[in-house]
Protein: Large ribosomal subunit protein P1
Amino acid sequence: MSTAELAASYAALILADDGVDITADKLNSIIKAAGVPDVEPIWATLFAKALEGKDVKDMLLNVGSGGGAAPAAGAASGGAAAGGAAAADEPKEEEKKEEEKEESDEDMGFGLFD
Structure:
């Protein structure tokens, strides 16, 4: 990661921690106040557009948790109870499919290091 990307990332985190909207102007002012040399304004614009309308704190708290998308999709298709039940069944089906793939690879009789 370049210095410009790090500076824009840290500036965005500072703004999010203070509860301030993340805009390109605010990112640029924090970067200039920090004295980071040679940061082109395009970085602030890119980060501001990427984080527009998103809760940065929530994104940081939910890093690696992939369970949030399935209930939302289920709730959109019907009632919350029906969506929740459907979402609970999906991981089991995916696990079975993955196990079947692994078994079929082992049946071939050769592996990566054979």
User: Anything to note?
Assistant: The chain is about 70% helix and 0% strand.
